[in-house]
Protein: Phosphatase PAP2 family protein
Amino acid sequence: MHTPTVDAPPHRPSNSRTVRVAAALAAPTVLLLVLVALSWAPLMTLDDGIADTTHRWAVAESGTTHAFRVLTDWVWDPVTMRLVCAAAAIWLVWRHREWWLAIWLAVTCAVGTAVQQGLKAAVGRERPAWPDPVDSAHYAAFPSGHAMTATVVCGLLLWLLHLYGAGRVVTRVALAVSVVSVLGVGLTRIWLGVHWASDVVGGWLLGALTVALAVMAYKKWGAPRRT
Structure:
């Protein structure tokens, strides 16, 4: 049985669905940003409750905590994710001579990093503080850089596989790895007590919105016109 290969994009994709997705993501993203910036009491109480519970688990389950530190510091670390993105950009140039698409991929990752660092500085949210911490992290808390970077990189790579017509098996494996990575890195950050739950949700939302806006830009200005 013939398995479809990853080949050049067959046509200029439609942008209407992407616009709807971006609009749907923008509302909860802005709402959460405003609630965090204003320190909305019900959200802060919810974050406190989740953090207290997961921190007790992290202290009690040292083996699980160590495994989560390895995953978050090495496997799902933002540097690792950016290296994966760089490898994909090199593949696009080497295999398909898609210079514009490779640049678009690199720029999107860079913009995502700039957005998260800018928001961290602007919101200035303090991270959870513990008398017996199991891990540490730098910079402000909101949004989670790990969660946002994983969402951006995995989202972009999944869209590239779709664009290039990857086979069903490849797509399903990539989707499963992406879901585990994006959810897993967020949960490890909460478990390790270095982020509030809303920081992680904010990272997921901002990452997904970044991907949607980047895809919109590519479809509008960068997609090849092919019949």
Remarks:
- The mean pLDDT is 92.
- The CA atoms of residues 79 and 193 lie 20 Å apart.
